[in-house]
Every structure is written in structure tokens, then in C-alpha cells.
Please model this.
Amino acid sequence: MSFVINNDRRMMINAQSKGQLHRGGTIMEYKFSEKVQTLKPSAIRELFKLMVGDGIVALSGGNPAKEAFPEKEIAEITQKILTENPIAALQYSISEGYTPLREQIAEYVKTNFNIGTEEDAVLITSGAQQANDMAVKIFCDEGDAIACDETIFIGSLSAIKANNVKLVGVKGDDSGMLPEQLEEAIATNPIKAVYLIPNFSNPTGLTMPLERRKAIYEVCKKHDIIIIEDNPYGELRFRGEHVPAFKSFDDAGIVCYSGSFSKVVAPGLRVGFMIANKKIIDRGTLLKQFTDVHTNILAQMIVYEYYKNYNIKKHIAEVSAFYAKKSEYMCKLIREKLPKEIKCIEPDGGMFVWCTDTSGKIDIDELVQKLVSEKKVAIISGDVFITNNSKSHSFRLNFTVPSMEQIEYGITSIGEVLNGLYAK
Ligand SMILES: Cc1ncc(COP(=O)(O)O)c(C=O)c1O
Model:
């Protein structure tokens, strides 16, 4: 994450030029809260460290491709808003979010995905990240537990732990979490919620079929357990049929749905949303009032105007088609160039390919290190996403950021290093 390093440097340079590098005192020994102590700093550092660097071919990132940004349109919209309506865009606003955007989202998800009933409401959040964190805060006290897949998105893993909530990894198969395993986890842990990424999961790329969604839903409904449905990638499908969201058949009001504009418009805008029963949204609004008051209002207006005046469907279709080509190419190369022991999950959408060493012989940390030092290729070890402390036999590859040439070089390099490791 080079901008942090740059900011640190800039602060140092400013301090140096003003002669303030040290005040001469002894800096106190900080007693950090357990919440932040339990975070996995090395994992987060590793993630960002491997994303950038001179000449590094990064298959490690999780960003949208630079070609996927509607930057010209956003520039036009921003100019128009700041010319015609500057104070509304720069003034404090309401915590629920920009009303036209909330109405627009409600209509969009109802029309396209049958999400939302009269009992539900929309809360604008600072990305799906904040919606997920809020759902945890709304339903869990310290010591409670959340069930999730055995490997989960690091941002959610950290948010759950930072709330002093226990993570219970539940076994799954090719269709995702197993209902009987979830039952077992509920019987032995104080589980308040289940966290799921049902479409093109990060990190595994898996999509949960409808039948499995319904089975998991029934288990949760029976035990009064909330489902946090995290769906930032849902619209980036490039193969197969749409699978209805949990929220679309949520007759008991147990689903907190997290949506995002990060992957279809721009992540830097930090605009996402939660859709849930009005009583849940009321609690979320209270939380937002003292967390960050409201999501950046200019960014909310930009998203609203973009959906209103431009062709979002066309944009999403183009981005998905672009990602499809890259994903297919990466998977083809994996089949051709990686040893047969490596099995990958070919995704139907999203941004990631998950590879597993079925022999269990490869030390994935060694693979990661060798790739960086010998080939200048960065990948992410599965260890980063694991809910317990076991060693992962998997690694995650991103296909959205690297070019076709980089994908080819990256996968060829992984094949060469793996062949060397198997031959040891
Ligand atoms: C599964 C998942 N959930 C949530 C997020 C956070 O997205 P946002 O930018 O909307 O906060 C990400 C980002 O990569 C993600 O992969």
C-alpha cells in the first residue's frame, strides 16, 4: 500500500524541514485494546506489499482493472454537480444517505433481483465493508460467534475479530457451506449470524447454487440466526445463470444484504449499501450517526447521477466481458502449465481464481517467497483468508488487474516454480 508509505515519508519530510523529527521525550508504551491486538497485521501487510513494487507482476491484488473505470463520465458528472448544486454536495447530510440514491437503489434491486419488501429499507454505507461491519455490531456482543466459510475475505475476517466476535469456520463442498455442518456449529457455539459471499466468493470464486442457499436459509430461520449476505461481485457474472439472492426469498426478515458500487463504478468513491428490515436499518442509522455521520455526499450524488444518466447495464456488460476473457485465459494457462496436482476453481464471475495443491506436499509460503524473489510474481497464500490457524494448501490469483501478457508470464512462472518444488 504505497500511499501509506508515501504519507509517512511526507510527514517525515515535513517534520524534518521544520526541525521537528523528535521532541526529545520518550514515547509512551501503548496498551492497545484486545480488539486491535487480535488483528493479523502481517497478513494485511503481506497483501498490500505484494500488490505493488518495481517490475512486480501482481496476481495478488483485488482491484478493478483500470480499464473498468468510467472516469470520463464521473468527471462530467462531478463538474455538473459542483457547478449546479455545490452546497448540497458539500454540506452535511443525513445519516441514512442521499434520498434519491436510496430510492434509486430500492427500485434497481427490486426490478433486477426481486430484492426488498415493504418492511425493508436501504442505508447508504461507506462501501460493503461498512455494511458488513455494521451488521456485526448490530447483532453481536463480545464473545458471540459468527459462522462463515473456512476461508473468507480478509476485510470481513478482520472486522469480525475487531468486534471481539469469534469466527467459526464451517466446512463446505463445491456448492459452498454445508447445512449439516452449520447445524453442528450452531449446536456448539453461540452463533448469532452467518456471513456468506454467495456469488464468486473472495477468495474462492465459488458460487452457491439456489438449492444450497435455501437449505442454509432454513437452518438459519429455524435457529433465529441472521444471514449477512455480502454481494459486492454479484453483477460481474460472465458465465452461467443468475442465482437468486438470499434476500430475494427472505420472508422472515433475517437477511442483512450488503451491496457495493466498488466493483461496478469505482471503489475510491466508497459508496455501498445495506438492505434489511427497517428495524435493523434504524439501528444501523444510529450507528452511522456517531461512526462517520454519513457517507461522502458528493460521492453518493455522483453514483446517483451516473445510474440516472448513463447506461449502467452496458457498462457492467462490457466490464464483465473484459473480465471473462482474462479469467478464461488464466484458467486455460493453469490447465496447460501447472502440475496436475493443482486444481483450480474456474469462476462464473468476480475477480479471483482459487488454486489448491491436492497433494498437500507444497509449502505455499515457500511458493509465494520463491515466486517473488526468483520471478517477481506476487500471489496470495490461502493462509491469509483462513479462519483457524491451520496451514492452507491453496493460493488466490487475481485476473482483473494484470494484462494478458502478465497473466501468461505469471502462470508460466508459477508452473516453473511448482515443478521445481515437486521435484525436490
Ligand atoms: C467479499 C468482499 N466484501 C466486501 C468488500 C469491500 O468492498 P467495498 O469496497 O464495497 O467496501 C470486498 C472488497 O474487496 C470484498 O471482496
Remarks:
- Residues 1-9 have pLDDT under 50 and may be disordered.
- The chain has 15 helices and 15 strands.
